[in-house]
Every structure is written in C-alpha cells, then in structure tokens.
Specification:
Number of domains: 3
CATH topology of the largest domain: Triger factor/SurA peptide-binding fold
CATH class of the largest domain: Mainly Alpha
Length: 454
C-alpha cells in the first residue's frame, strides 16, 4: 500500500523543497511519519491526510456537514487499518487488478455519472483529488471487494424456501393488483388407491398438455376432455385476483406465461391443467424471444489445427446438406460433450446467453434451417434453430431480485462478522498521537522515534 502512495507525495515534497528549502525537511518528516503498524505493513500520516482530504472534498461537494476533526481522523484511520489487512490478504493470494480492467472500471464510473473521463477528472480536481490518486484508490477498492467475495461469499447460502418466504412477505406488505383470466381442466380420479386408474389419468393429462403445446386450443380440450364444472365454458374461470386463486394454483399462476399450459398438477380430485388467458394490473410483463437451438462444435486443439478444424466442420455441413441426421452427427462429432450427447440440443436460449457470434447467427437463421459454418472463440459451429417462442420472464426476474436482495442482506451481516474476525486476529499498533487508540494493547515502541512529532 505504501509503495503505491509514496511516489505521489514524494513528487509533492520535491516541489515544496524547490520552492521553500528551509521548510522541506520538516514537511517531509511530518508527511512520512508512521502512525500505525498493521501486520507486515505501515500506515503513514500522508496516507491518512490524503484519505481525509478525499472524504472531506466529497462531503463538502454534497453539502454534508463534517464531524469533529479528531473523530474523523479516528474513523478514517480505522478504515485504513481494515483496508490494509484485506490488501495484504489479496497480496498473499496473488490477486491482481490489471491496468486494462482498471481503465475500464474508471470509464464505467465516469459513464455512470454522466461524464466523460475528462469531465470526471475535472470533478475529482474540484473535490481536491488527483485522477492518479483516485485511480489507485479504485484499484485498492476492487482488490478489497475481490477478497471479500472470496472469503465471505462462500459463507452465504440462499435457499428456495427463503426466496418464497421473501416474496410472500413482500406481497403481504404491498398487496397485489394482478388479475388473471384463467382456463382450467380436470382429469378426475375416483379412487387414488387404484394405481392403474391414477397412472392412466396422469398419462391422459400429460398427453392433453402436449396437444395444447402442439397448438390445440386449451378451451377446446376443456370442452371435450375436462371433468371440471366449467368444462362446457371452455374451462374458463373468469378473472381472479391472486387472493382469489385456489390454493393449488397460488404458487403456479403468478409465474405462468400467458397462453402456456401449466405443468400437470395433482390434488385429491385428480390431475389439473391451468392456463392464463390474459393478465392485467400489477407489474408490467417482461417478455423475451427465446430460440430452441442445437449445434455441432469442432474445436481446434493440440492435435487438430485451425485449418483442419475448419475443413472438418465444412465436411459435416456438406453431409447435413445431403440429408444427414443432425442429432446423429452431433453425437458422433461435436466437441461440446454436454450438448453433443443430447444430439446437439442447447434447449431454450435467451438473448445474451450465448457469445455474440453465436447469437448473431442464431437470430438470422430461420426455424428449421441449418446455418453455414461460423467461428466463435470456442471453435467452429453449425447451428439449427428448431423453434422460437416468446416467454414472460417476470416470475424469473422477481425470483432473481428476491434472491439477490436476500444474498446482499446476508452478505452484509456476514461481512461485518468477518471484518471483526480479521481485525481481532491482526497485529495493529498505533503510534504517536494515535497511540490512545490501542486501548490497552502493549505497544512498547509507541514512545519511540516513529511516534514522535516533528
């Protein structure tokens, strides 16, 4: 830490020495005095003053009042101590932040604040901070964050039950204005003790669900097949708020995409299918287009040159054009072991899920057609889009947001515990005016030359 800070202040000291020779020695001694020892590193007065200047500049630019100077010094020094402990952990773990990564982060910070890098540098200057100082501070913060994610993130677990409880509690607090126009069908079971009857009813419900997925109208199926009381109305239940849903449908309907039948649901009366015909109120739906895709990958390797990989994929493309079975070629030749074993099937793919080269070809390939060979960072591909659909992702987004909120809450609590642990385990000795912070720790050197003023 001191190695990155010291050159900035050495240049300042050099400038002062040229202008005011008689004061240079005293200024250097003040700037360079050690005020704390933290394990294998030291914290300098200059570091404390630089950090205080940054914080004061930010508070003043926000119009925020400042705490008493002594309190500010103590809090900032404790921040530097905790930061030093974590930076030493990062160094021991071999963590690094590359210049390219740091440059990209600085550009993102500027962009997120509606500024160019030049404007961002000017704003920092108005707050009394040089761009170089800010850049190094961001590098340290990135390292600290990386250490925390590695050490604390492994302690945090979020269960599906916690997500469900969170969503239920939020709904109770905020209520829900969602209303659903539902259609329902029932395949009744008279005797659940008769395994043959139960199996036949379940198989019938699954078969009807597949027919609906294949395009048969749900209401038509309900009229013809349902044992439910609303069968002759096409199974329609009308508009229902979430509070009016039958208990069987409460966990299903809010996350069900419009026009898509539910999975087969079991109750004491038999097997059910439900479909949301329309939805109103509440949150706006987030609908995305997904593609069902399969592909064949040929990857260059130590034994397969890039030229040989390209020739191999082109030969497979010729075979497909001549009528070869896509799934069979994928199982035999694809270097993507997971999808290859499934005949190349990647299942439903959402926007942003694949690398740009793959996504671009996927978007431009009509359903049922086979793309020409193309290259990505993984190698050479051929793909086929077997289907497209629109999917309401509102439920997934709600679940993801809930999971993230729970994770953040747990992470923050665990982080505080972890910071106390590493602070208690570290060797920290305060010097000079700050020796009062040692709180009874033995500091045999606290009256030595490092702690003396001037």
């Amino acid at each position: 830490m001191k190695a990155t800070i010291r050159p900035v202040f050495q240049s300042l000291i050099f400038a002062i020495a040229i202008m005011v020779p008689l004061l240079a020695s005293a200024e250097r001694q003040m700037l360079d005095q050690v005020i704390a020892i933290v394990d294998d590193e030291v914290i300098l007065q200059s570091e404390l003053e630089a950090r205080i200047a940054t914080i004061v500049g930010r508070l003043q630019s926000q119009g925020t009042g400042l705490p008493p100077r002594q309190l500010l010094e103590e809090r900032v020094l404790e921040q530097l101590v905790t930061e030093s402990i974590q930076l030493q952990m990062a160094e021991r773990a071999g963590m690094r932040i590359s210049d390219n990564e740091l440059n990209e982060t600085m550009a993102n910070i500027a962009r997120n604040n509606g500024m160019t890098l030049e404007q961002f540098e000017q704003q920092l200057a108005r707050e009394g901070v040089s761009y170089r100082e800010a850049r190094e501070q961001i590098r340290r913060e990135m390292l600290v964050s990386r250490v925390q994610q590695r050490q604390v993130g492994n302690r945090v677990r979020v269960t599906d039950r916690e997500v469900a409880n969170y969503l239920e509690a939020r709904q109770e607090r905020q209520g829900s204005n969602n209303e659903y126009r539902l259609a329902h069908l029932l395949i009744g079971v008279d005797n659940f003790g008769d395994e043959a009857e139960v199996a036949a009813a379940r198989e019938r419900a699954e078969r009807l669900r597949q027919q609906i997925l294949d395009g048969r109208d749900f209401r038509e199926v309900a009229v013809a097949e349902s044992d439910g009381p609303n069968a002759l109305e096409g199974g329609e239940l009308g508009w229902r708020t979430e509070s009016q849903l039958p208990s069987l449908l409460v966990p299903v309907v809010p996350d069900l995409a419009t026009g898509v039948p539910s999975q087969v649901l079991e109750s004491g009366s038999g097997f059910h299918l439900v479909m949301v015909l329309d939805k109103r109120g509440g949150e706006q739906k987030t609908v995305i287009e997904q593609a069902r895709v399969r592909h064949i990958l040929v990857r260059p390797s130590e034994t397969v040159s890039p030229a040989a990989a390209e020739e191999r994929i082109r030969e497979l493309y010729r075979q497909l054009r001549d009528g070869a079975d896509f799934a069979g070629l994928a199982r035999e030749h694809s270097d993507d072991a997971v999808s290859g074993s499934a005949g190349g099937d990647l299942e439903w793919v959402s926007p942003g899920q694949m690398v740009p080269e793959f996504e671009q070809v996927m978007k431009s390939t009509p359903v049922g057609e086979i793309s020409r060979p193309f290259r990505s960072q993984f190698g050479w591909h051929i793909l086929q889009v077997t289907d497209r659909r629109e999917k309401d992702m509102s439920g997934e987004i709600r679940n993801s947001q809930a999971r993230q909120a729970i994770y953040r809450r747990k992470f923050e609590a665990e982080l505080q515990n972890w910071l106390r642990e590493i602070r208690d385990e570290a060797y920290v000795e305060f010097k000079g005016d700050f020796s009062r912070l040692s709180e009874g720790e033995e500091t045999p050197e606290s009256t030595g030359s490092n702690g003396a003023e001037g």
